[in-house]
Amino acid sequence: MESPTFVRFQLGAQLRRVREDAGVTAEQAAEVIEVSASTLRRIEAGRVGIKGPALNALLDRYGVGDAELRETLLSMAKTGKQRGWWAKYGDLPSSYRQYIGLESAAEEVQNFETLVVPGLLQTPAYARAMMTEDPFEPSPEAVERRVAVRTQRQELITSGRLRLVAVLDEAVLHRQIGGTEVMRDQLTALLDAGKRWNVTIQVIPFREGAYASMLSSFHILNFADGPGVVYIEGLTGDLYAEGEDVRRCTVVFNSLRAAALSPTDSAAMIEEISGVRPRE
What we know:
There is one protein chain. This protein is α/β, with parallel strands linked by helices and 280 residues long. It has a six-stranded mixed beta sheet with strand order 3-2-1-4-5-6, with helices on both faces. The protein has two domains: 4-79, 434 Repressor (Amino-terminal Domain); 91-274, Endonuclease, Chain A, CATH 3.30.870. Strand 4 (218-222) and strand 5 form a beta hairpin. The protein has helices at residues 4-21, 26-32, 37-44, 52-61, 67-79, 94-105, 124-132, 140-153, 155-158, 171-174, 180-193, 244-259, 263-274; strands at residues 108-113, 163-169, 199-204, 218-222, 229-232, 239-241. Helix content is 50%, strand content 11%. Helix 1 (4-21) crosses helix 3, helix 2 crosses helix 3 (37-44) and helix 11 (180-193) runs antiparallel to helix 13. The chain contains 13 helices and six strands.
């Protein structure tokens, strides 16, 4: 079953394309349904849903006469109003909820990280140590809720529903987040995760020198149906990109994999840095 967030994202992308094909500006479209242009852009970004009457009004303005297309978009609008499992964590930022929804619908995530272990591979202690340092986390209870969300996200990996290809800068393995013991357990967890059929971990060693995108972490989410999406997390806002940007980031990701050690050699490096033997 597709994630409601993924459906909203796909609906928003289609609405944006239809609007642009019709030569209608965001400001003009917003007037039709009596919302601000920023709200319309949030609809087109998949951040918020849209009700049937408003959707029909937009499609009329765009001159969409194809009955099958209209019915498809209206059905998507209804599906996009459903609630995912993460809805019970009501204090999650909307951008994070959107990412979780897209991730839940993806069949593969390609993740490049320069500083931290990918969220899908973090131990609870490692995740807790990171979140505790966040100045915007209001309380220890909020931290524990975020840790619980991260743990539940990882069921995508343990259940085999999602493939993960992770490329890490060697710095990720050395940064002592949470202290020596927490980091040792985290590296051991990476070794265990790398044994799964649906997880590939590669490390770019320091000796590689400069390489593509070394200043920017990113995720590429690929879906069985529909185009892929690039996600880049930022301090002042998150970025989602489609189309040509996905193709370009895929080329960069393939370059990163070529610069990285093989999965086997990467596991050997992780084992050496951790100082412990991986569990059989």
